[in-house]
Amino acid sequence: MRKIRSNKLAGFTLDQTILVVAVIAVLATIIISSVAWNVLSKANATKINAHLQQYTDAIGTFYQEGDGINLNIWPEKAQDISRYLAGYTKSGTDHLTTPFGTTSTPSVLELHGGVDGSGNDLPGFKLSTDGGAATACAGSELDCYITVTISNMQAQEVIQANDSIDGPSEGSNSNKSTKGRLRWDIPTASGTARVKVTYFAVRKF
After folding, report:
1. DSSP conformational letter for 39
2. pTM to 2 decimals?
3. Which runs of E-coded beta strand occur in the chain?
4. Contact of 91 with 77, CB cutoff 8 Å
5. Is the pLDDT of residue 40 over 70?
6. What is the DSSP letter of 170?
7. Does residue 165 sit within a domain?
8. Residue 22 is inside which H or E element, if any?
9. For 12, phi and psi rounded to 5 degrees?
10. In CA terms, which of 63, 89, 123, 191 is 20 to 30 Å from 117?
């Protein structure tokens, strides 16, 4: 009896093909979303680093140029350095609103440790003291800084910015938050959680 060879090729059915394509699409979406989020976070961390450097430069420039009357004087409040910071608006009588917040959660910049209301030099804050909150120096101690605080910043971006400023050797995130030049108020915060940052901007002594 003569055998008839079938030309039909084995393969996926239409339903199977659709299922495979759908699975690939889901996996691609997950991977792309993860990569995009990491890239965006790193870009924002770079943006934070640039703004922190602007604070340092602005304070130093104000010291050189003075307040219009006196030279070699530190700024008293954040609004004193507003002319050196693009994208910042005045908030109240002392502070500046930063580009990092939203309409519902504005981000505010404050400055501490420059001069008092009478123009008298303040001692600044110790960088050498670990433990989160800045501790005031007693007189002209070494390692004393003018600090700025910025509210409502995303934790993940701050953590990545901290690795560039202070290095990854500080240990866990909870340790990072209380050491170095960049610190924040909620050690366990991560992701899009909002934190208040303290940055030791300019060394006075």
Report:
1. H
2. 0.75
3. 89-91, 95-97, 108-112, 125-126, 135-136, 144-154, 182-184, 194-203
4. no
5. no
6. G
7. yes
8. helix 14-65
9. -80, 145
10. 89
Contacts of 197 (CB under 8 A, 6+ apart): 149, 150, 151, 153, 158, 182, 183, 184, 185
The residue type of 118 is: S
Characterize the bridge pairing of strands 89-91 and 108-112: unpaired
C-alpha Rg value of the chain to the nearest Å: 26
Q: Which two tokens stand for residue 22?
A: 């759908």
Q: What is the pLDDT of residues 140-176, one digit of tens each?
A: 667 889 999 999 999 988 988 888 888 877 777 667 8
Identity of residue 36: A
Residue type, 168: P
Total domain count, the chain: 1
Full residue range of the structural domain in which residue 59 is found: 14-203
Amino acid at 79: Q
- What the block records as the tokens of 91 is 């908030």
Q: Say if residues 129 and 78 touch (Cβ distance below 8 Å).
A: no
Three-state DSSP class for residue 43: helix
Of 181, 186, 146, which Cα lies nearest the Cα of 165? 181
Residue 161 is assigned to a structural domain of this protein: yes
**Residues 94, 36: Cα–Cα separation, whole Å:** 37
